[in-house]
Design brief:
By secondary structure, the protein is of the alpha/beta class. It has a single domain (8-13, 24-108, 121-139), classed as Response regulator (Rossmann fold), CATH 3.40.50. It has helices spanning 13-26, 38-46, 74-83, 101-109, 122-139; strands at 4-9, 30-35, 62-65, 92-96, 114-117.
Amino acid sequence: MKNKLILVVEDNSDHLELAVLALEEHSVDTEIVAARDGAGALDFLFGAGAYADRDTKKQPNLILLDIRLPKLSGLDVLRSIRANPLTSAVPVVMLTSSGEASDIASSYQGGANGFVRKPVDFGAFSDKLNRLQGYWLCVNEAVPS
């Protein structure tokens, strides 16, 4: 069993594949779980639907969350994460193509720990994800479980 867990919530297949590749390239003992929409992310986090048998005591060490998602927006997912004691302290970084000031403000107002714009260049994208992963999984002191 892997020591750390990252949940990547991304509906774009290409972006998801690149994110997983970049995270795996630099990860040490990290499990990466992907959700393709907001509802799937909440099912994973709260042990519902396809994840009804999942032990929800093991929550991600980091959630990378896109803003524009089908079924339930990233901001709605963020609000649900912050409202539930199981997940309220899990670090959430908005990882999105958006650079709109209103999206940045809404993300921080909703409780995001960070807002990162996805670079177009894979090398730059990989570098950003490596630094995010390093900070949140190796440098940052998380709330004890």
